[in-house]
Specification:
Helices cover 28% and strands 24% of the residues. By secondary structure, it is of the alpha/beta class.
């Protein structure tokens, strides 16, 4: 069978979406769904820092949308936070250092609820982890939330009060921390996340903040599936079916 590689795109129902924030902004995004069945869970993705090139197409998030609907029966929702541009378009508004982006996160969860998508999890990468830590437990976004997975959390914009809010929620939270991260490495991450008793901090050997390389991507996707759809792991390395190759990689 053909191997799943960096630019492999597996079958899914993919559709552009528009999120609407409570302060009147329209945000562009995409929803990817399993092709032949209903999803068993939903992942809302929050991208890395837009002022440093982060957006909804940042490579790990895009590979989640390319693979996980087919391999794990998951719905993957990606969107550009306010003021962020990707090939899908530009979301209205301006970057707000993780503050008003909480309204963007709320709009994404509201969309999931309105579409009756099951078991919403939140996944953030770098800046996106701070948005989740600061805002996901807020009253307007917490209903039905299953938990969170954090990739390369820098704890740059988050404060102690945000960690304590997660601790009080009791919701599961997993931090995947690269061994060679530029901002927060596993030992310090373990100390700082200790305020959240239910938090799991997992150091990933050989990985860096940007999760470059197919080996790192496969580790991330398997760790995600182990928590969101454990009966679907470990993920296969090949695919016996239609598979496209994205041309810009």
């Amino acid at each position: 069978m053909p191997e799943i590689v960096a630019n492999s795109v597996l079958p899914a129902r993919r559709e552009p979406i528009m999120l609407h924030t409570s302060d009147g902004l329209d945000l562009v995004g995409e929803l990817a769904l399993p092709l032949d069945c209903e999803p068993t869970a939903t992942i809302i993705c929050c991208h890395p820092l837009p002022t440093a090139g982060g957006y909804m197409d940042s490579h790990v998030l895009r590979k989640m949308a390319w693979r996980l609907p087919a391999l794990a029966d998951l719905a993957i929702l990606r969107f550009n936070t306010r003021g962020t541009t990707s090939s899908a378009g530009t979301s209205q508004g301006v970057f707000d250092e993780g503050n008003a982006e909480g309204l963007d996160l709320a709009a994404a969860l509201r969309f999931v609820q309105e579409q009756e998508l099951p078991k919403p999890w939140m996944l953030g990468w770098s800046f996106g982890t701070d948005v989740i830590l600061k805002h996901a437990i807020a009253q307007q976004t917490s209903q039905g939330l299953m938990g969170a997975i954090l990739l390369s959390p820098p704890l740059r914009f988050s404060e102690v009060i945000d960690l304590d809010r997660w601790a009080n929620s009791g919701l599961p939270i997993t931090a995947l921390v690269p061994e060679n991260d530029d901002y927060l490495q596993p030992a310090e991450a373990t100390q700082r996340f200790a305020r959240i008793p239910q938090a799991e901090v997992k150091g990933i050997a050989g990985a860096g903040h940007l999760w470059v390389g197919e080996k790192s991507v496969r580790v991330v996707l398997n760790e995600i599936v182990a928590r969101v759809a454990p009966d679907k792991g470990p993920l296969p390395l090949d695919w016996d079916g239609p598979m496209e190759r994205w041309s810009d990689l």
